[in-house]
Amino acid sequence: MVKQFVYSLDNKRYYDIDDVLELIKDEGSDIKMIYKGAKIPYSHSDFICGKEIIESIQNRAYEQLEDYSVNYISHFDNESKTEHKDCYLVIERLISEYLNKVIPQPDFFRVENIEKIPLSDLEKQV
């Protein structure tokens, strides 16, 4: 995967190179330095937690039946059992694969390895 970079005037909101150049043009010539960072896209799997899903199911059962449901799907809590060891991963993978088939990946991202660079360095990349 080719590393993609994004740029910012204020280290808060990041843009692709064309958009930040347009912003610079609109802001005026006072800008000498900008921020550059690696664009790290999110995927559905970044937001899926199998353990939380199991806990949510257990909590909902407890809300409805209280003490009668205390041991409901508690098998997954005992991580020493080999057959249940990967249950969280299986749940995460199943949901992630389904989402990957039916909807696009998130269109937002995080930024890492941020550095402040001279505007002239950015202009050389165009």
Structural class: alpha+beta
Q: How many helices?
A: 4
Beta content comes to 15-25%
Summed up, the domain count is 2
| Shape assignment | elongated
Helical percentage: 25-40%
What assembly state would you assign to the polypeptide chains in this entry?
Answer: single chain
Outline the low-pLDDT stretches: none
| Strands in their spatial order, largest beta sheet | 1-2-3
Helix-strand sequence: EHEHHEH
Radius of gyration, taken over Cα atoms and rounded to an integer in Å: 23 Å
Helix-strand layout with pairing:
Elements: E1 5-8, H1 17-27, E2 33-41, H2 50-65, H3 87-102, E3 109-118, H4 119-124
Antiparallel strand pairs: 1-2, 2-3
Helix pairs in contact: 2-3
Describe the structure in your own words.
With 126 residues, this protein is an alpha+beta fold. The chain folds into two domains: 1-42 and 108-126, no CATH class; 45-104, no CATH class. It is 39% helix and 18% strand. The protein contains four helices and three strands. The protein has a three-stranded antiparallel β-sheet. Helix 2 crosses helix 3 (87-102).
